[in-house]
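User: I'm writing a tutorial on reading structure tokens. Could you give me a worked example: one chain, its sequence, then its tokens, then a sentence or two explaining what the tokens reveal?
Assistant: Sure. Here is the example chain.
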Amino acid sequence: NLELFSKDAPTLIYNANVNSSSGTITRKALSFDGGDVSKQVCADLYQRKILSVIVEGGRATLQSFINAGLWDEARVFYCPIEFGAGTPAPLLHAAHPTIRDSGVDELRIYTRLPR
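And here are its predicted structure tokens:
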């Protein structure tokens, strides 16, 4: 019942071991054995002529794209509530953010500094 598997739009799924295509769903196997997965994803997207992508992931996924310099903009929501212990946010090497109000939260838009 997942919307991810609806037939409304092409869906590309990166995984560890299956290359297949069925209808609008394409599965692409990548090497997770020491290879830089973020670079593999971007290389495959480029071959498919997909030149813009939004990455939503956990800390490790986001940090891999950040460390490889494969990002232009990061949108980070800050909330005044502290939750205590947890996983730290990814670390950005970025210019000072543009700040926008978003109700109780604050939206900070960071852009990557040139290398």
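What the tokens reveal: The chain has a mean pLDDT of 88. The CA atoms of residues 23 and 69 lie 33 Å apart.
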